[in-house]
Amino acid sequence: MSHGSHETSASILKQPKAVWAVAFACVIAFMGIGLVDPILPAIAESLQATPTETEMLFTSYLLITGLAMLGTSWLSSRIGAKKTLLIGLGLIVIFAAAAGLSQNVESVIGFRAGWGLGNALFISTALATIVGAASGGTGSAIILYEAALGLGIAIGPLLGGLLGHLSWRGPFFGTAALMAIGFIAIVAFLRPEQDAEKPVPTKLSAPLRALRQPALAVLAAAALFYNIGFFVLLAYSPFPLGFDALGLGFTFFGWGLALAVTSVFVAPLLTARMPRTRVLWIALPLLAVDLVAAGLVIANPTALVVCIVIGGLVLGVLNTVLTECVMEATDLQRSVASSAYSAVRFLGGAVAPPAAAELAHLIAPDAPYYAAAGSVAVALVIVVLGHRALRRVDRVEAEPALTEAEAITAGDAG
């Protein structure tokens, strides 16, 4: 990514301790997304839960993350980034530990919801904090932030698999311990004067009002259906694969790595060469085809793993490009547009996992993949039909590094 070749790797690494503290916490926060994936079958077995009940671990987390996103810009614009970060981290520590101590699946589902609230508060303010506290220019801070994010997405399933191999409770306690270290580091190293500039207070209703804008409405609707495909691939696949926690951990480590690489490196290359909507027109059908292929090869674990990793490559591009479109679609404050879009998108993610498990139970194990492919096709139709509203996102301009980083964050945050 061209964030300025004059910035050497030395300047990226010469950062105040505050930046390293927030970057470390970023890695852990993004690990939370894929962390439970490898332990879903183990939780179902240990707590005598059905696959549908187990999939609610994603639903409660994503539903609350999405709804909370509507209020995060309102809160952080009033109390400042440091307090918002610490409240978010504190909630993750408490609820991750509580999930690990749970005796039934309902409790884990409830505590995952609290975890989602903490994650929404943390993710929405981490980038602004790193940029505010960094030395060596915005560019080097953003590269560091994107590296932390990619690392978290890839390591989450791997750590979940390694700790989940010992016990399904392991990943929850591991997250709580690591986040507690992050919390202490931010308290110790992030001084008030390094806090990101206090933005203009935003109205609580601003994100909902933002959805009246045609361009944002088209993108949010497309993302709702696209995210159904995303989360069927991520959350339903552990069941037909039939691997143990370690096998699933390595599979979704490959998925996370693929997603991180394409979102950070490939998406910017594509949008530099063609209009953003054209990238969407190419990538959405590819994802639909990949999901159909997953349904066709469901009985062959090796082939299904290949489909999952290829899916990760396409998802990385789609996440970043869709969110870049959101950043450029309106004149609204970026945090407001991003909150509105993320809230709608996460609702798609919240519905998909339990719906997939029910489809598999009622029809056939491959049915969720075909339904997900259909949902991604709906997203494509929305983007194609809404092309007039999206004209503005195709104006080719040099993408500011900060916009790109915000796009990658909002894209990969779910």
Automatic annotation (TrEMBL):
It is a multi-pass membrane protein. Gene3D superfamilies: MFS general substrate transporter like domains. InterPro entries: MFS, MFS_dom, MFS_trans_sf, Tet-R_TetA/multi-R_MdtG-like, YfmO-like. Residues 18-391 form the Major facilitator superfamily (MFS) profile domain. It is found in: Cell membrane. Keywords: Membrane, Transmembrane, Transmembrane helix. The chain crosses the membrane at residues 18-36, 56-77, 84-101, 113-135, 142-166, 172-190, 215-239, 245-267, 279-297, 303-322, 343-363, 369-386. GO terms for molecular function: transmembrane transporter activity. One of its GO terms (cellular component) is plasma membrane. PROSITE patterns: MFS (PS50850). This is MFS transporter. It holds the Pfam family MFS_1.
